[in-house]
Amino acid sequence: MNHRNDTPVTVIGLGLMGRTLAATFLKAGHPTTVWNRTTAKADQLVAEGARLAPTVADAIRPDSLTIICVTDYRTVRELLGADGVELAGTTLINLTSGDSAQARDAARWAGERGARYLDGAIMAVPPAIGTPEAVILHSGPQQDFEAHRPAMEALGTITYLGADHGLASLYDVAGLAMMWSVLNAWLQGTAMLRTAGVDAVTYAPFAQQLAVGVASWLPGYAEQIDSGSFPAEVSALETDARAMDHLIEESEALGVNAELPKLFKAMADRAIAAGHGGEQYPVLIEEFGRPGG
Ligand SMILES: NC(=O)c1ccc[n+]([C@@H]2O[C@H](COP(=O)([O-])OP(=O)(O)OC[C@H]3O[C@@H](n4cnc5c(N)ncnc54)[C@H](OP(=O)(O)O)[C@@H]3O)[C@@H](O)[C@H]2O)c1
């Protein structure tokens, strides 16, 4: 990435991710201060030019930009709430993973201490940091995001979601549903095909193609959800439900797990019982939008 910037940054937390964030800021030319509970994890960064602060209080200077990336929000609070840590006038960007309530709570807590606060979520693994593939989501006041966008752009593709501090975490957690759903669906098919001697490597490219094909339906289906109208343009839910029976019956006949297909079917059956059998699949949003299970 072609990025040079002289804004000083502080990185608190030098785990697998924090170390990579700090190294990437350094490489992009930012004077970088670091702090970590286990100081040895800073050795390589110091050799590359980072300043190791002796305490969190020392690491966070007035008007500084501080990125914190530790295990969880409880640790964020412990570290930033420690005696002597002065947050007034600083900007905090919290890239620690958590949920939306924790993010909103952390924003309130930091605001009470006079800090500007942005919450963030890293949708990437450490090796991708510093490349466009590393998508980093931000939420909080837009002017604070814009003020620090040039520095944050060293890390990857920087995205702003809105003023609600909970949004970055909410997108992050919502993305987990996508990840595990795709993986579980693939594992279901793989288990079925293995009974016929088809190995996982043989099925994977077919599964990948299917997943990409299904993903291409999302924008059109999303329009149906937003308009609240679900005409069966391609297939009616009751047709899908019959195919779900095939999936359940085949899984049971093969002696593989049928829990996931039965979950699909239970949700579809409820929507059909509510009178939606003639509508298209995304009408199930009504089932997903209320508590169940
Ligand atoms: N790694 C990834 O692929 C990835 C991807 C996206 C998001 N994230 C998120 O990034 C955050 C950090 O992940 P990571 O992979 O860097 O984890 P990690 O390697 O386990 O590092 C955890 C960091 O938190 C610090 N820490 C934990 N408890 C502490 C405490 N009580 N007091 C002080 N420091 C404490 C650790 O300090 P010590 O070094 O002293 O133990 C270390 O700096 C997590 O929220 C994770 O979900 C990670």
Notes on the protein architecture:
An 8-stranded mixed beta sheet has the order 3-2-1-4-5-6-7-8, with helices on both faces. It is built from 12 helices and 8 strands. It folds into 2 domains: 9-163, 3-Layer(aba) Sandwich (Rossmann fold), CATH 3.40.50.720; 171-288, N-(1-d-carboxylethyl)-l-norvaline Dehydrogenase, domain 2, CATH 1.10.1040.10. The mean pLDDT is 96. Helix 7 (167-194) packs across helix 8 (200-215) and helix 10 packs antiparallel against helix 11. It is elongated and about 65 Å long. Helix content is 50%, strand content 13%. It is of the alpha/beta class and 293 residues long. The structure holds NADP nicotinamide-adenine-dinucleotide phosphate.
Main attributes?
293 residues; alpha/beta; Rossmann fold; N-(1-d-carboxylethyl)-l-norvaline Dehydrogenase, domain 2; 2 domains; 8-stranded mixed beta sheet; 12 helices; 8 strands; elongated; binds NADP nicotinamide-adenine-dinucleotide phosphate
Supply the number of helical segments. Answer: 12
- What is the chain-wise order of helices and strands? EHEHEHEHEHEEHEHHHHHH
**Uncertain spans:** none
CATH architecture of the largest domain: 3-Layer(aba) Sandwich
CATH top level assignment of the largest domain: Alpha Beta
Rg of Cα set: 24 Å
Oligomeric state of this protein: single chain
Shape, per Cα inertia axes:
elongated
**How many domains in all?**
2
| Helix fraction by DSSP (H/I, runs of at least 4) | 40-55%
How far apart are the first and last residues' alpha carbons, in Å?
46 Å
Look up the CATH topology of the largest domain.
Rossmann fold
Q: Which homologous superfamily in CATH is the superfamily of the largest domain?
A: NAD(P)-binding Rossmann-like Domain
Proportion of beta-strand residues:
5-15%
The main pleated sheet reads as: 8 strands, mixed
* Strand order in the sheet with the most strands: 3-2-1-4-5-6-7-8
